[in-house]
Amino acid sequence: MRRVSSMLLGLSLAVCCTCVAAAQEKSSMPKVLQITREFVKPGKAGMAHDKTESLFVDAMTRAKWPTHYLGMTSLSGKSRALFLTSYDSFDAWEKDSAAVDKNPTLSAALERAAVADGELLDSVDQGVFFRREEMSLRTLTDLSHQRFLEITMFHVRPGKDKEWTEVVKMAKAGYEKGVPDSHWAMFEQLYGGDGGVYILLTSHKSLAEIDHALMEDKQFEAAMGEEGMKKLNELYGESVESSQNQLFAFNAHMSYVQDEWIKSDPDFWKPKAAAASTAKAPAKEKTPTP
Predict the structure, then answer these.
(1) Number of neighbouring beta carbons within 10 Å of residue 267
(2) For the purposes of burial, counting CB atoms within 10 Å of the CB of 191, is it exposed (0-12), middle (13-18) or buried (19 or more)?
(3) Does residue 279 sit within a domain?
(4) Domain limits at 198?
(5) Domain count within the chain
(6) Three-state SS across 131-155?
(7) What is the predicted pLDDT for the residue at 142?
(8) Of the four listed, 11, 135, 223, 258, which is most buried by Cβ atoms within 10 Å?
(9) 282 in any annotated domain
(10) How far apart are alpha carbons 96 and 101 in whole angstroms?
(11) What's the Cα-to-Cα distance from 170 to each of 37, 220, 232, 240, rounded to whole Å?
(12) Is 192 part of a structural domain of the chain?
């Protein structure tokens, strides 16, 4: 971002770690977050992609599968969809995958959906992230009334972990003082990318919250003080190689969420079918998209 205070402004909002597994209902937050990105071919986004993704949702719903996921589509950058799934541990992830493999009905349905969906995609990749509790503050879990997700990615310079940790520590203290309602979760990428990558996930009920957050910038600066901001900017410049912000909109057609979410906001989470029943999958089955 242009300045450290602007870069960390997202911390002042209701930030979610987007942990949408069944374990989200527990008091403790799941630690492992899997993010799958699907880059969509030109002209294949929108209703076309909604239809094929709803095949996955239908399959999971029929199986009454306990692990949920949240789907969203890009409002910035390349046209793509994100799917976020989380687990209490890597062991829990392994057991969930093994259970899917042992369920022939679900596995076959997912394979058929993957074939239909694959026709619309340019590429797919995955990243696996681990929640950094010491870098998080009052993490939220209930996203049922949220509609947008802002993802801020930080690339930390090699050998500058200590300085980066101090940046987050200072920002955390500044927001606790200047913007007391702030809360967030920070994740470190463990697999699927370059080292030194951290992501901050910020949820919004509406885009008007971004307008409001821009005004909170001054509250944060006042809490930090002139000397504090000077030190923060210096440490940030020393430790962070690059960063970027991307904005996404939650997509109910692409999401397999808990019953509690649907009951809390059925108009959004249970939309009219995306004509999934008319999306014909090829007869030949292939390996499902990861």
Answers:
(1) 7
(2) exposed
(3) no
(4) 4-270
(5) 1
(6) ECHHHCECCECCCCCCCEEEEEEEE
(7) 78
(8) 11
(9) no
(10) 9
(11) 32, 11, 7, 15
(12) yes
- Locate 24 and state its tokens: 């989200």
Beta bridge mates, 202: 15, 150
> How many residues belong to the chain?
290
Distances (CA, A) of 19 to 72, 75, 140, 238: 14, 21, 9, 31
Q: How far apart are CA 204 and CA 97, in angstroms?
A: 31
Q: For position 137, what pLDDT does the model report?
A: 76
The secondary structure of 32-98 as a DSSP string is EEEEEEEEEPTT--THHHHHHHHHHHHHHHHHT-S--BEEEEESSSSSEEEEEEEESSHHHHHHHHH
Question: What's the rounded Cα separation, in Å, for the pair 252 and 283?
Answer: 27
Tell me the CATH number at 177.
3.30.70.100
Helix (H, G, I), strand (E, B) or coil at 2: coil
Determine the Cα–Cα distance for residues 86 and 32; give it in Å rounded to an integer. Answer: 5
Question: Does residue 283 form part of some domain?
Answer: no
For residue 268, is pLDDT > 90? yes
CA separation for the pair 183, 94 (Å, rounded): 30
